[in-house]
Design brief:
alpha+beta, Immunoglobulin-like, 16 helices, 45 strands
Length: 877
Amino acid sequence: MALVRHPYQQPLDAQWQFAEVAANELPTIEFASQIADHRWQTAQVPGTVASSLHALERFTYGDRQFDDADYWFRCHCDLPQAAALCFDGLASLSEVFWNDILLLSSENMFVQHRIDLSAHLARTGGMIHSGILSLRFRSLNTALKIRRPRGRWRTRLVEQQQLRWVRTSLLGHMPGWSPPVAAVGPYRAIRIETANDIRIVDADVRTRLDASDVFHTPDVAAQSAGIVSAKIHIAATTPIDQVILHVGDTQCRLDIADQLSGESPAFMAGGELRLVNPSLWWPHTHGQPTLYPAQIEIISAGQRHLFDLGQLGFRSIQVRREQDDFHLHVNGVPIFCRGACWMPPDILSLAGDEARLRPTLLLARDAGMNMIRVVGTMHYESDSFYRLCDELGILVWQDFMFANMDYPVDDPVFSANILHEANQFLNRIQLSPCIAVLCGSSEIEQQAAMLGVSRDLWRNHFFADSLPRLCAGFLPETSYVPSSPSGGVMPFQLDAGVSHYFGVGAYLRPLDDARRTGLRFTSECLGFSNMPDDSTIEQLLQNGEAPGPHPSWKQRIPRDNGTSWDFEDVRDHYMAQLYQVDPASLRYADMPRYLALSRVSTGEVMAQTLAEWRRAGSTCHGALIWFLRDLWAGAGWGLIDALGKPKAAYYYVRRAMAALTVLITDEGLNGLAIHIVNDGPTSVQAELQLDLYRHGETLIAQGMQAVTINSHSTIQIRADSLLEHFFDTAYAYRFGPPGHDVAVARLRSADADADADGNEIPYCAAFHFPTGIKHHGERDLGLQAQFEPAEPASNTDDFVVYLTTRKLAVSIAIDVPGYLPDDNYFHLAPGAIREIRLTSSSGSSTSSNGKKSVQGSVFALNALSPVKIGKPASPSE
């Protein structure tokens, strides 16, 4: 069933309370009345026990194990007799009571429930019945003590191996990288569906493209049609006159057939709607993610009933797998998929509302990410998440919620449970054009193979047959992957199929390993302990605590369970390589410098690696970074911290992932190669300029070339072709001392600062340091920063900061409290001017004299001290 938004559903409006009791202390509803009034506390619903405690300012990470106790939630409410109660998510072992009547018992937090109240409340004799709705969440740890068959292998991902029997999120159960917060409570909405003469019981609605020539560019003639097929199962107490499918401005009358269904009449309506030459849905990096509103209109007894299907899009999607490849094509165009693995923005509540999700997804889109992976260790995301990805043009790699363990798929009860779960989830996402890949599990095949399990046990029948068949029934065009990683002789083979790549990263491989492995598609990669900024660190640590070996800091550094090292050690390894420092000594002697280098080290490594994978001639067609956002405050894997603020690494990745960008790779004795990537739907005419500087100041060589980059393409230009004679641009021959210490490639608009369509080309620049990145502090770089209001006559609080420098400024960090820069931690070439927009995030910036003003500073990694942002002025002044 496609997601149908019933007009007769409303959130249950009630004042909720919760109470903690010992496991099995009050085993049935009859005993719940024994909970003393003083034990009941105000609850957040939807939410969890953790989020309710946090709202009451009584939550501390690690102070209790939520799986040890039972938790009761209750509210006083009125329930119409002829209605239904809808539960979108109960985590994890739960029971629902209405007064003393058991309505529901569930052992799966991933499924939704609809309870018809008629049978339960018929005895009350009234249309409105007042009472207490109670939810009991049973102790998971108590349930896990039940003896059950062991799996064929043990995983280090979780300590309690019997979790393989329980359908709950692994968040809170994975030592080393997940905060100790298990999901317990009604974490999704609870709704009342009032009775009506018309109800859609089931809806199978799907889209496809029927095209002889799906257009790739606007100048190619297109003959295509968007097809929407619908099969609607309707329960009605009155005859159905018409059923009409609306898509945008087009409508189609569906054929109606009677069907007996118990005592209530039921009808089936079906048909196809055809749109000629619809605008296609594209990933935002490659075009516009066009959507069409869709509705089902049912006319019965002269009454018009509208059911919202949300928005749908038309796109073709295909994964090419020839010769061990894994390459996604959308609307016939090859896509380099880049992005990150998704983590819930709020691990305490697991909130799935648009207000929580949109800011993080906007940051992902603005970073040039066109794919997000929902990982099998998490939970299925809310409907709002998929709607936002549809709207923003972000593809979704969707795991089913299975990871690393040997799940008992042959057990009849467990098998029925997970089939129901998968069926229900596929119902929800059936119309979402963002769904690109459906993946059976995370690391199950890899785990089994690495532990030496027999090859024929790596993949069971559920992931090999049952689940892909179910997926094909709902989304026939969407590719299915049995496990991530998989596809090679070994599941973790890097140059075949889908891989998890941590060579550059956890395995401490040199940076050129990213090219040497011949990667095809990595759905997890580049996991680093990314350092947040000082304001986030200050909120985390108390007096006397500091980043480093302190336990309060180390408990939030991610690690693989059972290892003697953590990902801060990994970061320090690459910091030593990039900047030729001893991280341990530096941390002792100069903590601010250590923190500054920590922030930029991981960003530099990610940017250089992504450049290798996006370059012309690369075998890699996708890279998803491990993670997008931290689960809790600290130096976690996230590019965004737990407070929602981008870290330094985010900005490096943003430049490397941009739809239009310039990259530099070191080709050894062949010199430097410059790669220009244009993922957009139109060609770009530009001027490429290459500058070589000595001592970060003196220009020793310069070359320019007009270039045309066609839509959806990448070109490569040898640096030597831009220069009049040989300059050893990569410093590979080493005939004497280096002639330059930095090479800068810049892309500029060709004519009148505009491309062929009159659009100004965004700032694109790439830097290469043949002798290493300069970071030693200099007294005076000539760095200046001035600001002015972005729109002086408007009410906006945004500003533009103008930056100039006499000498090369490395990794410039802009720090303006209350503002978010649109770029940060970037290099600035001598004589260049950068305009950086500051967007207000904390109210007005008007000073006491009524003039708009900001206070802040900019700091270059190779400067001794920061520079204050000056009074309002433009560069011309």
